[in-house]
Amino acid sequence: MRTFDLAPLYRATVGYDRIADLMDRVLTGDAAQPTYPPFNIEKTADNAYRISIAVAGFTADELSVEVKENTLVVTARRAEDDSARTYLHRGIATRAFERRFALADHVRVTGAQNLDGMLHIDLVRETPEALKPRRIEIARANDIEAKAVETTAA
After folding, report:
1. CA distances from residue 57 to 4, 116, 117, 120, 125 in whole angstroms, order as listed
2. pLDDT tens-digit map of 68-100
3. 32 phi, psi to nearest 5 deg
4. For residue 81, how many C-alpha atoms fall within 13 Å in the half-sphere facing its CB?
5. What 3-state DSSP class applies to 151?
6. Does domain 34-153 fall into CATH 2.60.40.790?
7. Which residues contact 62 (CB under 8 A, 6 or more apart)?
């Protein structure tokens, strides 16, 4: 696999650390991406998203959802000890896990619920007023001439 040196990018830019880190993460090609637990990411509205993670066997108390520096971190730690049970077949994995999701700027977690073995995490993208497009009124030539006349008359 090819590797790219991003050092020139770091030297020539200021304030683009998150983009450079994201590129580093993508280009490392880490083949050992975790596959447990399985999850879905869906778009529920124009600026709303939902991450659904299969967490069969975990209670709400054993799950943790945190946002740290634009990273959503979902962890699960099994509380009870199953050593007293004897399984003939154990197909439901209840091992501890940590799953990370990189969040874009202005994406906020609005809630999480554990329902029927699925952990649903709702997110919304809130664009600040300063970043929203705004309409600039175009002055007409007559308006400019009228203001110039008022200014010279006064």
Report:
1. 42, 10, 7, 15, 31
2. 988 999 999 987 666 778 888 888 878 899 999
3. -95, 50
4. 2
5. helix
6. yes
7. 76, 77, 78, 79
The amino acid at 83: S
| Cα 138 from Cα 124, distance rounded (Å) | 34
CB 85 within 8 A of CB 94: no
∠ CA 33-38-43 to the nearest 5 degrees? 105
Is 20 strand, coil or helix?
helix
How far apart (Å, rounded) are the C-alpha atoms in residues 140 and 118?
A: 59
Question: What residue has token string 């199953």?
Answer: 82
Give whole-number Cα distances, 88 to 57, 80, 85, 91, in Å.
17, 19, 10, 10
| Cα distances (angstroms) measured from residue 4 to each of 1, 20, 124 | 10, 12, 34
Domain ranges of the chain: 1-32, 34-153
Instruction: Give the pLDDT mean for 139-152.
Output: 69
